[in-house]
């Protein structure tokens, strides 16, 4: 069971109350908006006597589009942003977390969650989010956003070859319950 943490402190408090993980979708708001909710979750978790290290956080990054040259990625995905921004302006529901008006596409790329750019730019952005959230789970959209099939597949290949190995190195998977029990058993046996 995962609790969404996109808009309300009560959502993350409820997750902490039940000892459940949260998932920050990271839609159209800046990182700090979501980081505040993640911090509140960890504080609520600890206030209930739980070890903050056990608070599991996941983070979404909307779209991902990687190209060798950042300029190519940025320009290829500009129309996708324009469609999404127009949709949000038209919906204008005035609900927190659903409508954010960025100064520009470039502003959104700098401060928003989409992973658009060269492999290094994508790694740098994930690192910024990881520093703010301390998350162990990353989700990227499997949606080509209107790009051509070949262009999308090339991006995914580059993501898998140049980004994923570094993410696995820098953000290792949390231990499974079986691994944790095995480590505890080995530590106990060594201490005895």
Structure commentary:
This protein has 192 residues and is of the alpha/beta class. It has one domain: Alpha-Beta Barrel (TIM Barrel), CATH 3.20.20.30. The chain contains 7 helices and 6 strands, in the order E-H-E-H-E-E-H-H-E-H-E-H-H. The protein has a 4-stranded parallel beta sheet with strand order 1-2-3-6, covered by helices on one side. The chain has a two-stranded parallel ribbon with strand order 4-5. Helix 1 packs parallel to helix 2 and helix 5 packs across helix 6. The radius of gyration is 19 Å and the shape is globular. It starts with a strand and ends with a helix. The C terminus is likely disordered. This is Luciferase-like domain-containing protein. Keywords: Monooxygenase, Oxidoreductase. InterPro entries: Bact_Lucif_Oxidored (IPR050766), Luciferase-like_dom (IPR011251), Luciferase-like_sf (IPR036661).
How many β-strand runs?
6
Count of folded domains: 1
- Strand order across the largest sheet: 1-2-3-6
CATH topology call = TIM Barrel
CATH homologous superfamily assignment = Luciferase-like domain
Helix count from the secondary structure assignment = 7
- By secondary-structure content and strand pairing, the structural class works out as alpha/beta
* Rg, nearest Å: 19 Å
| Helix/strand order | EHEHEEHHEHEHH
Shape: globular
Q: What percent strand?
A: 5-15%
What assembly state would you assign to the polypeptide chains in this entry?
single chain
CATH class annotation: Alpha Beta
The helicity comes to 55-70%
């Amino acid at each position: 069971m995962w609790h969404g943490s996109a808009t309300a402190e009560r959502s993350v408090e409820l997750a902490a109350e039940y000892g459940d993980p949260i998932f920050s979708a990271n839609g159209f708001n800046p990182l700090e908006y979501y980081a505040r909710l993640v911090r509140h979750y960890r504080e609520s978790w600890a206030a209930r006597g739980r070890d903050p290290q056990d608070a599991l956080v996941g983070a979404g990054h909307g779209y991902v589009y990687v190209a060798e040259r950042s300029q190519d990625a940025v320009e290829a995905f500009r129309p996708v942003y324009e469609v999404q921004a127009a949709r949000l302006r038209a919906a204008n529901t005035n609900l927190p977390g659903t409508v954010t008006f960025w100064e520009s596409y470039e502003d959104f790329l700098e401060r928003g969650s989409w992973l658009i750019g060269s492999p290094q730019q994508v790694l740098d952005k994930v690192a910024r989010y990881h520093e703010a959230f301390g998350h162990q789970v990353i989700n990227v959209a499997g949606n080509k956003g209107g790009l051509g099939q070949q262009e999308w597949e090339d991006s995914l290949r580059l993501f898998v070859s140049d980004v994923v190995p570094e993410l696995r190195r820098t953000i290792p998977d949390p231990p499974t319950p079986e691994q944790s029990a095995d480590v505890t058993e080995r530590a106990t046996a060594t201490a005895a």
